Amino acid sequence: MSDSRLSRSASPLTEFREGVLTTLPAIAAAVPFAVLIGALAVDKGLSVVESGLMSALVFAGASQFVALEGWTAPAPWLALCLTALAVNMRHGLMSVSLVRRLERFPCWSHPVVLFFMVDEIWAFAEARAARRPLTPAFYAGLVTFFYCAWVAGTLAGAALGGMLPEPKAFGLDFTFIAIFVVLILGFRARPGFVLTILASAGVAVTVDLLWPGPWSIMAGALAGILAAAFGPRGRAA
C-alpha cells in the first residue's frame, strides 16, 4: 500500500499518535532547555507565572534565551523586540515552506499552525510531507505534547530557580544542539544538501565573528536558501 493510501486510510487518532511518537526525542532534548529558560527568567526578576506566560505566548526558545540574556530593569523593550525579530526571522522563511504542505488544513487554521511552528515541528512536518500528505491530526500530535512540555519545563525551572545545578555540569546544554544536528541530517538525502549546509554554516560563522549577535542566524539561513536555489540542482529544478 502506498504512503498516500496509508494517509487516507489512517484514522485521526492513529495520525495523532504517530505525531506524538515522532516528537518524543525532541521533547527529551527541549525540556532541559526549557527548565534553563525558566530558571534564567526568575533570575532576571520575572515571577513563575510571568516565566510560564513567556513560554506559552512566545514559544520560541532561541529568542526567549537571547531576550533574557539582555534583560535589565527596566526592560529595554525596543532592543529586546529587535533582537527577538532578528533571531526569529528564519521562521518567516520556514512558514513559506510549510504553508505549501497545508492542503488538508482549513484556511482559518493556518495562523494557528504557524504559531506553533518551531524548528523541530517544522522539520518533522516537512519530513512527513515528503512521504505523504500532512494532516491536521498528525500536526496536532507533533504540537500538543511538545508545547505542553515546553511550558511545563519552563514553569518547573522558574519554580526551582537557584536550586537547579549548573546544566553544563551534566552536558544538558548540548542537548538542544544535538537535536538540531539530528534534524539537519534528516534532510541529507535531498539534492544540494552538502552545498546548502556549507554555505549556511560558513556565512553564519563569518557573520558571528565579524558582528557577534543574532543576525548570524538570519544570514546563515539566507545563505542556505540562495545555495539551494542557485546551486546546480536548484537551477536544474
The secondary-structure element order is HHHHHHHHHHHHH
Judged by helices, strands and strand pairing, the structural class is mainly alpha
Radius of gyration: 19 Å
Shape: globular
- Helical content class: over 70%
Give the total of beta strands. Answer: 0
**Model regions low in confidence, pLDDT < 50 over at least 5 residues:** none
Count helical runs.
Answer: 13
Our measurement of the CA-to-CA distance between the termini, rounded to an integer number of angstroms, reads: 29 Å
What average pLDDT do the residues reach? 83
Major sheet summary line: none
Strand content is under 5%
Count of folded domains? 2
Would you write up a description of this structure?
It contains 13 helices and no strands. Helices cover 74% and strands 0% of the residues. By secondary structure, the protein is an all-alpha fold. α2 (12-43) crosses α3, α3 (48-58) packs antiparallel against α9 and α6 packs parallel to α8 (119-131). It has two domains: 3-187, no CATH class; 189-237, no CATH class. The model has no long low-confidence stretch (mean pLDDT 83). The chain has helices at residues 3-9, 12-43, 48-58, 61-69, 77-88, 90-99, 110-115, 119-131, 136-160, 175-185, 193-210, 215-230, 232-236.
Question: Keyphrases for this structure?
Answer:
mainly alpha, 237 residues
Question: What is shown here, in short?
Answer:
The protein has 237 residues and is mainly alpha-helical.
